[in-house]
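# step 3/5: fold
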Amino acid sequence: MVFQNDGNYAPQGQGGFSGGRGFTPRPMVDVSSMGLKCANCNTDIKELPFQPSTDRPVYCRDCNRQRRQNFGGSRNRY
């Protein structure tokens, strides 16, 4: 049996379910006037990719990256 591409199938890396959509970073929120400090290293935080809430700790870019690496598991499991 021979399968023909009817235009609805996109090979991996060219759209479809496998992605193909560009990554759009979140806009940064200026939080320099809030006086936020990293909950881990106490560094001043000037901007975040979200609006922080008062009931959760915030982390600087370096500490957040380290926390995500230590969280466990890999994003590329397959």
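# step 4/5: annotate
The longest helix spans residues 61-70.
# step 5/5: archive (pending)
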